[in-house]
Amino acid sequence: MLKCTVKFCGGCNPRYDRGEAYRRIRECLSGVAQFSLPEDGVSYDILVILRGCTGCEYLYEEIQATHRLISVCAEDIDRIIREIQTLSQR
């Protein structure tokens, strides 16, 4: 099972419900990926960055993760789910 974490941007200009997006990602990947909030010193397989818009470019490089998947709109959620499913099959 993949070890995943999530980071939300500051939310200054959200264009979609990022909380709902995170719930959907977790629900669709149940049994494939285990999600938790980031902890110092922990290394993750995947960091999902849920931005509210295209303005923020911060990648949260202080969080150790092999892969970073970024969402800037609701349409990105299906792609992120597919990418995590693909990574889980490696």
- Rough outline: globular
Which range does the strand content fall in?
25-35%
**Please, how many helices?**
2
Largest sheet: 4 strands, parallel
Mean pLDDT: 94
State the helicity in percent bands: 25-40%
Low-confidence runs (pLDDT<50, min 5 residues)?
none
Structure description:
This protein has 90 residues and is α/β, with parallel strands linked by helices. The protein is built from 2 helices and 4 strands. Strand 1, helix 1 (18-28) and strand 2 form a beta-alpha-beta unit. It is globular and about 35 Å long. The protein starts with a strand and ends with a helix. The model has no long low-confidence stretch (mean pLDDT 94).
In a few lines, what is going on in this structure?
The chain has helices at residues 18-28, 76-88; strands spanning 2-8, 33-36, 43-50, 64-71. It is of the alpha/beta class and 90 residues long. Strands 2-1-3-4 form a four-stranded parallel beta sheet, covered by helices on one side.
What tags apply to this protein structure?
globular, 4-stranded parallel β-sheet, alpha/beta, 2 helices
Give the secondary structure arrangement, pairings included.
Elements: E1 2-8, H1 18-28, E2 33-36, E3 43-50, E4 64-71, H2 76-88
